[in-house]
Structures are given as C-alpha cells and as structure tokens.
Write a structure and sequence with these properties.
Blueprint lengths: L1 H8 L9 H12 L5 H15 L4 E7 L4 E8 L9 E3 L5 H10 L6 E9 L2 E10 L7 H77 L5 H30 L7 E3 L1 H18 L6 E6 L6 E3 L1 H19 L4 E10 L2 E8 L28 H11 L3 E7 L3 E8 L7
C-alpha cells in the first residue's frame, strides 16, 4: 500500500524502512519517468528519508560538462547557484561545499552516479553527526546511487532516441521534398522534350509557308492541317501537365487503330525532312499492315513515335540512310517497329539505353526520350525491345495487347 500511495501522490514515501522496500519503491516511482528532471527529486527524497542524512543535494551533468545542482533538501537555496566542472567531482567539490556551508555539516559523502561508463551526476549527503553514516547506510546509499544512475542512463538513452527520431523525421521530410523536386524537374524536362519534338515541325511548316508564299491552295490546306494537328498535340501535352499538377484522375485510354497515329507521326517527321537539308539523305518509309485495335492515350503514343523516329533521324543524319516504320499483327497483338540502317548503339551502353538521363548525344541530349517511351509502353501494358546491330542499325519494337471488345 505504501508504494501505491506514493505513486498516487507522486513523491517518495518516507516510511519504508526496509532497504529492499525502499529500493523497490524508488524503482516503481521512476519506472515511467522519461526525463532526468522527474528522477532527481525522487532520488533526493529517498536519500533524505532513508539514509540518515541531514541534507541532500543532487547534481546533474550538463551538456557543457558542468555539475549543475538540481535538487536540494534541508540545505540553503543559495547552493543552487553552484556550478563546477565535472573534473571537480571528488575532493574539490567536497571542499568547496564545506567552505560554502562554513562547516555546518562535519561530514559530506559524495557518490558519483555512473552507469555503463557514463557519468550522469552525483548524490551528495550532508551529515550533522559524524557517526550517522555507518557501513549499512553506506551500502544502501551506494545501491540507491547505482539504481538512480541506471534510471538516469535509461532516460538519457530515451532522449537520444527521441532526438535521433526527430532528426530522422526531419531528414526524411527533406528527402521527400528533394524527391518531389527531382520528380518535378524530371517531369518538366520530359514535357519540354515532348513539346520540342512536337513543335519543331510546326516551326518548320511556318518557315516553309513564309519562303513559299505562292503555294497552291491544296498544298496550303494540307500544310495548315498538319500544323493544326501539331498544335493539338501540344495542347494535349500541356493538359497532361496541368492535370498532374491538380492531381486529377487520368482519363482512361481509348481504343484506337495504331496505323492512323503512325501515319500522323510519320507525316510530322517527314515535314522536317522536306524542309531541312536532311531530305535528300534520309528516306522515311511506311510499311503498314492491318492490326487489332489497342487501348492507348493517342497523344502519348504520337509523342513516343516522334521520339523514336527523331532518334533514328539523328542517328543517320551524318551519312544518310533509311528509316522504316512497320506495323503488323503479332500473336493477336499490335506491333509497331521503327528501324534504321545507321551505326546502331554501342554494345557497352545498350543495357542502359532506357535509363532516365542517360544519353549518347552528349550535351545535345536530355536522356529522357527513350525513358519516356519505355514508361509510356509500360503504363499501357505493352513491351518495348531493342534489336541492335552495331554498324547495321537499330530496331525498336513496341507491342501492345489488343483492346478488349465490349459485348
């Protein structure tokens, strides 16, 4: 009942005379303590009530390696101003206390609070009677000091763990923000890459119209139609970015025939050939066969095709060559290939070709084109493969499952 009543009032019970009872009560009172400031007053009460001391002082070690007096019992309050270095623990501290108290207590007994090799403070017992500190009380005082040191060590470890957790959480928040910024940067780079591929043909068409103002109406109409398709693809790309920023659900893919989008991509890329000096060097050939319908986001598929065809054009720009865009049915699925007869991709980098930010184009490349194509194919349950022959060209193959037919 003594332990229970002590827990209820939150202080040490002065009537527990049995050493085991006293130590058990001290353990019970400090079991839930999470800070040293909760333990130090309990230690002072226990020492005053059971060790025959006339006064008690409990010191704690500060972060600056000083002894700070945190609890006083039956001693002048002026002692609280006492601050001494940890090295003073021992004869110097005892002598200093004697001088301050002007010999009021003939005997001062100081016990360091040490646990697991760490010093956490000191328990100072002040006796008016030289005979009051017998062997029995000395052993009990040492047991209480050891128990208090273990408890203080536990609170120290708890504080360290809490501090580490706070630092870890702060680091995780910084890492999360960094990851978001990295993802945002990657997304912005990807969108700018797509827009450049989409809008470059538009610029070429505008330049073509300016250089050839006397084009017949039919040619002008076809050119304007191509420009309109380019602008519409650019608008859809920007809409995807805006939807991402608002975290709005993505619209479901639609069932489409890939040949129509392949023709559009080839037309946009062929415009680049017809207006630049690449025209005489590069032949862009379409070999289209019947394919099943597939569920795709058409504007993303168009961007992926333009990426692959543009890469082939860059690969053979120096020496010229042929790019073949093929479609076919493959085991009930739709297949599209972009093949060139250029130098191919070096074997040593072939395994990294789909990695974000990896490029073989030096400073002119972003390293996002093929990574975006790969991500697009994965999102639409397709496969993307590379058939590479260094010196003999590269073939990229996309295969998509057929759209599910609704009854």
């Amino acid at each position: 009942m003594a332990v229970i009543s002590s827990l209820l009032v939150g202080s040490f019970h002065p009537c527990a005379t049995c050493p085991i009872d006293m130590l058990s009560e001290f353990c019970a009172l400090t079991a839930d303590a999470s800070t040293s400031d909760e333990i130090v007053p309990l230690l002072a009460d226990a020492a005053l009530g059971h060790l025959g001391a006339s006064g008690v002082a409990v010191f704690q070690v500060t972060e600056s390696a000083e002894l700070r007096l945190d609890a006083l019992r039956n001693l002048p309050e002026g002692l609280r101003r006492l601050h001494m270095p940890v090295d003073a623990l021992g004869g110097e501290l005892e002598g200093h206390l004697h001088s301050i108290l002007c010999g009021q207590f003939p005997r001062i007994h100081i016990l360091p609070l040490i646990s697991a090799g760490g010093l956490f403070g000191a328990l100072a017992l002040f006796f008016s009677d030289l005979q009051a500190m017998n062997e029995h009380r000395s052993k009990l005082a040492q047991a209480l000091a050891n128990l208090a040191a273990i408890t203080l060590h536990r609170t120290f470890e708890y504080a360290e763990l809490s501090r580490s957790y706070i630092e870890l959480r702060a680091s995780r928040e910084i890492l999360t923000r960094s990851e978001k910024l990295r993802a945002l940067g990657q997304m912005a780079s990807g969108v700018s890459h797509d827009l450049k591929n989409i809008l470059s043909p538009l610029l070429l068409q505008v330049q073509h119209l300016r250089r050839c103002p006397d084009l017949d109406s039919e040619t002008q109409e076809r050119t304007l139609e191509r420009m309109e398709r380019v602008l519409w693809s650019g608008v859809q790309t920007v809409d995807r970015l805006r939807s991402f920023g608002r975290q709005t659900p993505e619209l479901p893919p639609l069932a489409v025939y890939i040949n129509e989008i392949v023709k559009q991509a080839a037309s946009l890329c062929r415009s680049r050939l017809s207006i630049t000096d690449l025209g005489p060097k590069i032949a862009l050939i379409e070999e289209l066969s019947e394919t099943p319908m597939v569920q795709l986001h058409g504007d993303e598929f168009l961007n992926a095709l333009i990426n692959l065809i543009s890469n082939s054009m860059d690969a053979i720009a120096a020496a010229g060559g042929t790019i073949r865009v093929r479609t076919a049915q493959q085991d009930g699925r739709a297949m599209v290939q972009i093949a060139d007869n250029g130098p191919g991709i070096p074997k040593e980098v072939e395994g990294r070709i789909f990695e974000p930010y990896f490029t073989t184009k030096g400073e002119t490349g972003t390293g996002l084109g093929l990574a975006q194509v790969y991500a697009f194919v994965q999102r639409h349950n397709g496969t993307l493969s590379l058939d590479n022959v260094p010196g003999g060209g590269a073939t990229f193959t996309m295969v998509f499952p057929a759209a599910v037919q609704e009854n």
